[in-house]
Amino acid sequence: MGERFPSLSLLTLLVVTFVVSLSFFNVAMATSVDTTAQHQHQHTSGYACPMHPQQTGEEGERCPICNMYLEPIEQETQAQTKYVCPMHPQIVSDSEGTCPICGMNLEKVEVGGASQTIEIEVAGGMQQALGMRTQTVEKGTLWRYVKTLGTVQYDQDSIFHLHARATGWIEKMAINNVGQSVKKGDFMFELYSPELVSAQDDFLQALDYSSSSDRMSAELLRKARLRLELLGISEKTIKQIEASKQSLYRVPFYAPQDGYVSDLSVRDGMYIQPGDTLFELVNLSHVWVIADVFENEQSWLEQGRPADVTAAAQGLFGLEGSIDYIYPELDPVTRAMQVRIRLANPDKKLRPGTLVDVELYGGPKRDLLIIPMEALIQTGRENRVVVQLSDTTFSSVTVKLGIMVKGQAEVLDGLQAGDNVVVSGQFLIDSEASIQGSLQRLSQPSPDGSHHDHSHH
Predict the structure, then answer these.
(1) Residue 56 sits in which domain range?
(2) In this structure, are 404 and 312 located in the same domain?
(3) Are residues 288 and 406 in the same domain?
(4) pTM, 2 dp
(5) 378 close to 411: Cβ distance less than 8 angstroms
(6) What is the 3-state secondary structure of the chain?
(7) How do residues 97-134 score in pLDDT, each as one tens digit?
(8) pLDDT in tens, 18-59
(9) How many CB atoms within 10 Å of residue 375?
(10) Is residue 390 part of a domain?
């Protein structure tokens, strides 16, 4: 009455786990000799001539035909029989018995001999239970591709610096702060400058002389007009002076382009002289995106290659552009190279300093063996895939990879077109293959000729 029994669900779980593990391990014991692999562990049995193998003898003797020294005859090591616990594969014995941990009978395993390809047998029902799916290895084209980060910057070609060209005093400033938006032709300030007044007077005088047909008068008028232009007076203001026949003591200045004020160096009433920077205007109709590219990705990037830019925070996705310029120097710390992408920015949503995602595309690589990334088992030291050899037979294979692009990987070695690779449920099969590989290594002789022995009697 005092005894307590495990619940039915717990017993069921233990039984299912035991049966699945036992059946999976039992069917996984089948190994086949790889007929193409010739890397056998070898031992010596007599000596023979390497050129005339029918001539045999003892160590140190020579061939009577070619006088070459006889060399050892190498023979394959015979396969060995081991007994392993299906639940605890670290328990290995040279003879039949039971596992000291769980009491199960040890299973017979043939290991050693020629190098072996581990084959795992998985019945159809077990494949369904594991949710296994396969995909055929095919040849195709992958576009070289880099996903990186970039920063939005001003288009340096759209920055306008307004400098003083005459001495004078700033009056009636309409630009009051950095960041203020202006349109081309907007009034900015007036400048009182005796130098500008004198230049206007000369222009009006030349204008009076030009009424005659004298060629010299026409040339004088042209030079007087050019002088006003070089002093920074706009065409609009020159026409106003010409029409009114009067000089302006306070000359108005207007915005030369659309944009916003990124630098403001003067205030109302300040005295200026030639060379002083008054304003800096930036047009955001186009911007630059500067992106970093690592050293191993630089060889296939070139100007004109397409690029996509995404600024998720601004709700901008897949903005199309191209590589406008590749900077010649590498960052000495990160070893990264910078590339520049020029983008249209009609809505002005991309602002300098914004962090964006950048996708750069190189040229295509054609006729590649391609597998999905989900088929890969990446350990950090190597990459493996599970290959389906028949309806119920599978093997774990090491592969060498090339480029990896958007969920697909190029296979350089280890597979061929037409192979079926497992893309779902492959991890248990790979684990089983790893266990059997460990059993093979247990049977291999150590360099001193001895075998590893983990027998439990």
Answers:
(1) 42-76
(2) yes
(3) yes
(4) 0.54
(5) no
(6) CCCCCCCHHHHHHHHHHHHHHHHHHHHCCCEEECCCCCCCCEEEEEEECCCCCCCEECCCCECCCCCCECEEEEEECCEEEEEECCCCCCCEECCCCECCCCCCECEEEEEECCCEEECEECCHHHHHHHCCEEEECEEEEEEEEEEEEEEEEECHHHEEEEECCCCEEEECCCCCCCCCEECCCCEEEEEECHHHHHHHHHHHHHHHHCCCCCHHHHHHHHHHHHHHHHCCCCHHHHHHHHHHCCCCCEEEEECCCCEEEEEECCCCCCEECCCCEEEEEECCCEEEEEEEEEHHHCCCCCCCCEEEEEEHHHCEEEEEEEEEEEEEEECCCCCEEEEEEEEECCCCCCCCCCEEEEEEEEEEEEEEEEEEHHHCEECCCCEEEEEECCCCEEEEEEEEEEEEECCEEEEEECCCCCCEEEEECHHHHHHHHHHHHHHHHHHCECCCCCECCCCCC
(7) 898 988 888 877 665 544 456 777 778 888 888 788 88
(8) 334 434 434 343 333 343 333 333 444 577 777 666 677 788
(9) 24
(10) no
Q: Which of 112, 102, 127, 95 is nearest to 24 (CA)?
A: 127
The domain total for the chain is 4
On whether both 255 and 221 belong to a single domain, the answer is yes
The identity of residue 32, as a single letter, is: S
Q: Are 89 and 192 contained in the same domain?
A: no
